[in-house]
Design a protein that fits this description.
- The structure holds two protein chains of two kinds.
- By secondary structure, chain A is α/β, with parallel strands linked by helices.
- Chain A folds into four domains: 3-127, Rossmann fold (3-Layer(aba) Sandwich); 141-233 and 316-332 and 497-564, 3-Layer(bba) Sandwich (FAD/NAD(P)-binding domain); 333-496, 3-Layer(bba) Sandwich (FAD/NAD(P)-binding domain), CATH 3.50.50; 577-636, Alpha-Beta Plaits, CATH 3.30.70.
- Chain A is built from 18 helices and 32 strands.
- In chain A, helix 3 links the parallel strand 3 and strand 4.
- Chain A is globular and about 85 Å long.
- In chain B, strand 1 (5-8), helix 1 (19-31) and strand 2 form a beta-alpha-beta unit.
- The radius of gyration of chain B is 22 Å and the shape is globular.
- Classes of the chains: A alpha/beta, B alpha/beta.
């Protein structure tokens, strides 16, 4: 056994608070260590060459690198030792940066801890066994969850690249939040005019299979081979027959259904097509409002439908799809006005959210594009916009910036002036955040060309006074209180993750942060990957994002899938559980505890029942190992003996 | 209600400027069978003057009273004045949370306080412990003309972390109690806005301006009477109403009653018993228009008959002159 140990300075990152020379010296004394040295940047090309050279010169057969986290460079160095002719699992990494040098300032204590950690790695590497990957075929179909602009872009790019795409959208139409917007900043492009053609492309692409009004029920499998159960929710309308003529919607007597598409700014019918450009353009019944369901009699739509598409007996349907990769593009939701009691908590009809105002501006919205305030349908002359309504507010648990409110408020203020030339808009702001291309010029235009009055300060209270809404706040530049009597108040409500984001994350085995946003693999270098191989992120499900950023991520995620699928076979990770059939007593506890259903029972020739691991399904979590009463099932590369060797190195020293 | 006994801490205001609040609270408690006892030798609650100087000292003043109540074997103190209420709640909160703070406070006290007494506002006792059903049952009188704006003031239910009662921005407990005794309640947006509080001495004009807003919003909401739960609010809105009129050029003349006084009117107590004579802006018109439930019922029936007759008259007229 000839172990080589390479201790990295990482510039001053490690050497600044760890005496790397002293660590090398201490390690050299361990029996079995044939070579120990330090290097400025071990991950650099000359650094890796030095490892290869040392393997040759000193006849080394096990390598330890003490540097950063294995999540950073384990793979790099495994490749290095493999190139020098060693099995890639004859390598261990000791993390002396994230776990030591970055977190402690006491150099002496750090050095002592670093010696311990490297000792453990040396003990482990001596116990390591060579492991070999096997390769398996992959299914080159991709699932995209979410049909907003990010998901659509990802689906189109994958499909154009020749992949078959399954697109699942939970609402009745694709298009997402962008399909609700009137115009987009900073170009004042009509939102649906640029999104509509994309939606049609999605619908007409022969490689894209669209499941609208459907949700993910269950996800099984692993990268390259997923089985997805999709729940097609009951629409009570047979979409193979529905032509989208809209006759049912016209005649439906239930006029007070909540309009999810318009965020409740006006009611809709119990049977409805959400908007004229909807894809698919099909009707759907809301059973919470439909008289057939609430009162047991009506049936007007069934009578009127020319194609007899109405089916009150319809049930949810489960379909199964097989794919090899998943792109998650589930988007975001918005803070409910109820959470802002100082702004009326949703009690005042003329205090609305930005997305509701967007629908009032929109030609296909409930007011046909005329700005009429909800309470009395009168055109407002004084409009107050409140940015950061909930955002950057620790007291309600939303410390982050919602990213795009500053910009859409400037846009809405400009559009307001276009719609109502004799109107005056005010914007209360904390800071104007406009770092995109052409963005700052845009907010300046709102102030300078459109006469929007920007007031730097927070709004403390909004209350009604006669027909007006009084907005009471502070002007921190003047150092005085201000009160504005407005006809309409628009709140730039905070961006939240989807309410069911955590639930989906658990099905996908991906991580999410405190706020329910999905966590990328690396915030800078792996922005659309997750730590689960085969699952990628796009758009605002990862954090608040505007349209260009969402589209960019959609394309990025698609390119990652295309790269993954450029091979026909994938290599499996050999660090999986393995059963020693001589020790296994066939209790099958492991079968029951495995969260991935990766263990089955197997009958041996002598009739004995033992556990058997399906290598490609096993995720290497190790739950079975701790369950097994006789140590028969061992996680390769993390066996009991290997881990105990580390513990001994630490405790017996 | 029968089992629970409350300590009743009236506080200094209720012995002076707000004696009518004390009178009416006691009457209402008696009427609704709330068992209460006033602790002996109670002292200052430790509000504004103390806590602007020293938090430990303020908490010690509060804890002295709480400790007396603890020794009496009671665990809840009913407090009509919001300033006393918050002084108690604050002392309790920080002494429970912070052991060193508790030790510092107890060092100043002869009798150590073990944090076993919780303060509740009179409003909370009535709303949560007595309940609206009981409150309605006891009603004997109707005040048909009264339209009330319920004014909670700034600290009856705030800060929410300490108050632990009702909504901090849009409280509803007083609204519900007043509705329960048959009074018309206006939708009032300034329920928790500042009246100017204790700044009446150093900054009289500011208090007048702030109080003027509260009154004008109440009138705008359609109220002809303001209900309060705080001696300082009552003083600023009622005693200073003449001053407010002088400062802001307004012409307000709106009575400001404690909500317990209004309850007392609905329960049939005399103006004298309820201390209505202590109000600066007279509320006599409500006393005059007050009817017993029976009288009110008769009146309603007669009015309906009158309406029917009128309708009949019109119908017959129409028949005669087609």
């Amino acid at each position: 056994m000839r172990v080589g140990v390479f201790i990295c300075h990482c510039g001053n990152n490690i050497a600044g608070t760890v005496d790397v020379k002293a660590v090398a010296e201490a390690i050299r004394k361990i029996p079995g260590v044939a070579y120990a040295t330090t290097y400025m940047y071990t991950c650099s090309e000359p650094g890796q060459d030095e490892i290869k050279q040392a393997i040759k010169d000193h006849n080394l057969n096990r390598i330890v690198v003490a540097a950063c986290s294995p999540r950073m460079h384990e793979l790099t160095f495994r490749k290095t030792v493999e190139k020098a002719g060693l099995n890639r699992y004859y390598f261990e990494m000791a993390n002396i940066r994230e776990h030591i040098s970055w977190i402690g300032e006491d150099k002496e204590a750090n050095t002592k801890k670093a010696i311990d950690v490297v000792k453990m790695a040396v003990a482990k590497v001596m116990q390591d066994r060579p492991l070999y990957s096997s390769s398996f075929r992959i299914n080159k179909r991709v699932l995209v969850i979410g049909g907003g602009v990010a998901g659509m872009q990802a689906a189109l790019d994958c499909a154009d690249g020749g992949l078959e795409v399954v697109l699942v959208e939970k609402s009745p139409s694709i298009g997402g939040m962008m399909s609700r917007l009137d115009k987009t900043f900073p170009t004042i492009d009509c939102s649906i005019c640029i999104l509509g053609p994309k939606m049609v492309d999605v619908a007409q692409h022969d490689k894209i299979k669209l499941y609208a009004y459907s949700e993910i029920d269950e996800i099984k499998g692993y990268v390259g081979n997923y089985q997805i159960k999709i729940r097609k929710k009951a629409t009570y309308v047979d979409w193979t027959k529905c032509t989208g003529c809209g006759a049912c919607m016209e005649k439906c007597p239930s006029r007070n259904a909540y309009d999810y598409f318009n965020f409740g700014v006006a009611p809709t019918k119990a049977i409805n097509i959400p908007f004229p450009q909807a894809i698919p353009k099909k009707a759907k019944i809301d059973p919470n409002y439909c008289r057939h369901f609430t009162k047991g009699k009506c049936g007007v739509c069934a009578k009127i439908c020319p194609t007899k598409a109405i089916n009150y007996e319809m049930q949810d349907e489960i379909v199964t799809e097989e794919v090899g990769a998943i792109i998650v593009a589930t988007g975001y939701s918005l803070l409910d006005l109820e959470k802002l009691p100082e702004y009326g908590g949703g009690r005042y009809p003329d205090v609305i959210s930005g997305i509701q105002y967007e629908r009032l501006l929109n030609a296909s919205g409930p007011t046909a594009g005329h700005i009429l305030r909800p309470s009395d349908h009168i055109e407002p002359k004084t409009i107050v916009f409140v940015s950061c309504a909930g955002s950057r507010d620790k007291s309600i648990g939303i410390p982050y910036c919602s990213n795009f409110c500053c910009m859409y408020i400037a846009k809405q203020a400009i559009l307001t002036k276009d719609h109502i030339p004799d109107s005056q808009s005010y914007v209360f702001y904390m800071d104007i955040r406009s770092p995109g291309k052409g963005y700052d010029e845009f907010t300046r235009r709102a102030q300078e060309d459109y006469g929007v009055k920007y007031i730097r300060g927070r709004v403390s209270r909004i209350y009604p006074k006669g027909k007006k809404m009084v907005v009471k706040g502070v002007d921190t530049l003047l150092g005085s209180q201000v009160e504005i009597e407005a006809d309409l108040v628009v709140l730039g409500t905070a961006v939240l993750s989807n309410p069911d984001a955590a639930h989906l994350a658990e099905k996908l085995h991906i991580s999410y942060d405190t706020f329910g946003f999905y966590v990328e693999s690396h915030p800078k270098l792996r922005p659309v990957e997750t730590n689960t191989s085969g699952v990628f992120l796009a758009g605002a499900c990862q954090g608040p994002k505007d349209i260009p950023a969402s589209v960019g991520q959609g394309s990025a995620a698609a390119s990652k899938v295309l790269a993954l699928f450029s091979k026909d076979m994938l290599e499996s990770d050999p660090a999986v559980a393995k059963v020693d059939i001589n020790k296994c007593i066939g209790c099958l506890k492991c079968v029951r505890t495995c969260p991935f259903q990766a263990i089955k029972d197997k009958e041996l020739r002598d009739g004995r029942i033992v556990a058997d691991v399906i290598e490609t399904v096993c995720a290497g979590c190790g739950v079975c190992t701790s369950t097994c009463p006789c140590g028969a099932i061992q996680l390769q590369h993390f066996t009991d003996n290997q881990l105990l060797a580390e513990v001994n190195a630490l405790c017996l020293a | 209600m029968a089992n629970k006994r409350y300590a009743y801490y009236s506080g200094c205001s209720l012995e002076g400027t707000a004696v009518e609040y004390d009178k009416s609270v006691r009457l209402i408690f008696d009427a609704l069978g709330v068992d209460y006892i006033e602790p002996e030798d109670w002292s200052c609650c430790g509000s504004t003057p103390a806590h602007t100087i020293d938090h430990v000292f303020a908490a010690a003043l509060a804890a002295r009273n709480l400790s007396i109540i603890e020794k009496m074997g009671l665990d809840t103190v009913a407090v009509p004045c919001p300033a006393c209420l918050m002084a108690f709640k604050k002392a309790q909160y920080f002494m429970e949370k912070d052991e060193t703070f508790k030790e510092k406070v107890n060092e100043l006290l002869d009798e150590k306080y073990n944090c076993g007494v919780y303060a509740k506002s009179t409003l909370q006792v009535l709303y949560e412990d007595v309940g609206l059903d009981e409150i309605t049952k006891r009603v004997t009188h109707v005040i048909p003309d009264m339209k009330v704006a319920p004014y909670y003031g700034c600290i009856t239910n705030r800060p929410p972390k300490l108050a632990q009662f009702d909504d901090p921005e849009n409280p509803i407990s007083m609204d519900k109690i007043l509705s329960a005794i048959g009074i018309e309640v206006c939708d009032f947006a300034f329920k928790v806005e500042c009246c100017g509080a204790a700044f009446g001495v150093p900054k009289k004009d500011m208090v007048n301006r702030l109080s003027a807003k509260v009154i004008s919003m109440a009138i705008e909401a359609g109220a002809n009477c303001i209900a309060v739960a705080c001696p300082l609010c009552q003083q600023n809105l009622d005693l200073r109403q003449e001053q407010i009129n002088k400062t802001t050029g307004s012409n307000f003349n709106i009575p400001v009653l404690y909500f317990t006084q209004i309850m007392g009117l609905a329960y049939g107590y005399s103006p004298k018993e309820l201390g209505l004579d202590k109000l600066i802006v007279s509320a006599d018109n409500f006393v005059h228009s007050r009817l017993t439930k029976e009288q009110h019922e008769l009146l309603k029936q007669e009015q309906e008959k009158g309406k029917k007759k009128e309708v009949k008259k019109q119908e017959t007229q129409e028949e005669e002159n087609p």
